[in-house]
Amino acid sequence: MVKKKLVLSAMAVLATLSLAACSNKSSSSSSSTAPTGASVKLSESYDNTAAVSQAANKGTLKVAEANNSPFQGITDPALASNAEDTDVFAPGGGDNLFNVDKNYKIVNGGLANLKLDRANNTATITLRKNAKWSNGMPVTAKDVEYPYEVIGNKNTTSQQFSSDFNDIQGMAAYHAGKAKTISGFTYPNGQNGRTTVIHFAHVTPSMQYSGNSFMWAAVEPYEYVKNVPIAKLAASTQVRKNPIFTGPYKLNKLVEGESTTWVPNPYYYGKKPQIKHISINVVSSNNIDKAVQSKKYDFVTGGLEGTDYNELKGLKNYHMIGSPALSYDYFGFNLGYFDTKTGENVMDPKAKMANKNLREAMLYALNLDQVAKKFGYGMTWRANTLIPPVFKQYYNASEKGFPLNIKKANQLLDKAGYKKQGKWRVQPNGKPLTIYFGAMTGTSAQAAEYQDYLQQWHKIGLNVQLVGGKTMEMNSFYSTLQAPKQNKIDVWAGAWSVSSEPTPTQIYGKDATFNMGHFVSAKNTQLMNEMNSNKAWNQSYRIKAFKQWQTYMNQQAAVGPDSFSYAWAPVNKRVKGYNINPANNEFWSNLSLTCPHVQ
């Protein structure tokens, strides 16, 4: 059920990957609970009691990135929008500022500490004394500020901006190109010092958590990139070929689109990495199961599916490790365009998919429960909202979503004037209706899913066809959707790897560039603003706002929930120290090897 995801890089969470342990002297630990809807139970950690082998640690930890397309190769978190880039550059640490607890709440001890001041509406970020980049440069207060310039610049290629950043004093003027700097940043000890103060219109509840949409949770090496125009930064040598990092490993070699290799970063402030070499290689979804079965890799990152779990669950030398995913699959509808002059999404009342009844009918026509059961193997289940259940407090379990209801689908279409003329329904004005469905090339199981969607839509008389008659390569798919205006794709199957703080402004905000369906309404803006209003410091009020938003989005059917899932991976028994709990902020440094070769 997993489609390749766009990622909100602001989540800045290290423990989103998977590794594990070797030797027969091992035991599982941590919680082994199944989230709502899943029938499989997995643990998020694996304890290996075998001794660490220093000889093995001098070898290579071999990681596979399950992906059907080359990764884009954008190492800068402010510019990256693809989950695959996040995966293949993960040993560099994502340049994360903060440590978090098991609930992603920011705690002291990371690259920097955070202090929020509600009385003065400020956030003070203080870097640790030994904070350095992997080339030995010190991390500075200006490095904390500069990603905001990259994200908010009028000519940026970043997809991360949303209206929440306008809460920073001076950001709106900078984003509009009316100011050269962002006035809401001050430096008590100068730009080369260790302290950055951000001045907000108001401090919000979400700022307590990493990945919130008001503060960026990663640094940018200003001195290293300052001479590169922001518009050209994503294509620069500093980002594409010779990037620097703040995490436990530094990049040793990059084969464009194919692989990354890593060695310990001697300037890392935290726990010294134990493994001397890491390789991450892209492996297609059609080959990933055989590669693991052949013991070519220690573990897998990326888009593993229920069909993969069914193939790999019986392997004796691997453990299946996982936790509820910070992601969901969805159906998007093209409802307008992004106005590059105003920097806002605009709904087009004449858009092919503008009729809400048409969208609802398409969602009710799908048999997502059956698809999840057939292809998910207990790892996926039908989604009912646009907030994953991993966010237990905010998830609205009472929402029904769009269970199969062919009768209701037909009634909605009839009511809206989409009458049948022969085999297919026509538009209310009597003109022919052809709807183009965008879907990414994947496994044979995914191809079968897409055909099932088409068959279900055909059952209610809608002439829905794949764009160009076939599935789309991932990068081509997203480049089409991310164009300010496009008319090739009317409805699509996509996925979000969401932030560790669930405010959805970056995806569905009026000025969010990630809002690829371009749905905009005053009510939507109001509900999202209420999630972080002053009243939202009352937790019950904030929970209510989140649940109301989920109900509203289902009512509008501008984005349809598809499936929730486990984030899981097969991990070889020779890896020790694996734990994907968010509180494990030294994920990569805690890994070691007990055997010289993949077992």
What would you say this structure looks like, in words?
The chain has 599 residues and is α+β, with helices and mostly antiparallel strands. It has 2 domains: 52-297 and 573-591, D-Maltodextrin-Binding Protein, domain 2; 323-565, Roll (Dipeptide-binding Protein, domain 3). 22% of the residues lie in helices and 22% in strands. It contains 16 helices and 28 strands. Strands 1, 15, 16, 19, 22, 23, 24 and 25 form an 8-stranded mixed β-sheet that branches. Strands 11-12-13-4-14 form a 5-stranded mixed β-sheet. The chain has a 4-stranded antiparallel β-sheet with strand order 7-8-10-9, covered by helices on one side. β11 and β12 form a beta hairpin. α9 packs antiparallel against α11 (406-415). It starts with 5 loop residues before the first strand and ends in a 6-residue tail after the last strand. Mean pLDDT is 92; it is low at 1-5 and 8-33. One of its GO terms (cellular component) is ATP-binding cassette (ABC) transporter complex. This is Peptide ABC transporter substrate-binding protein. Keywords: Signal. InterPro entries: Peptide/Ni-bd (IPR030678), SBP_5 (IPR039424), SBP_5_dom (IPR000914). Residues 119-510 form the Solute-binding protein family domain.
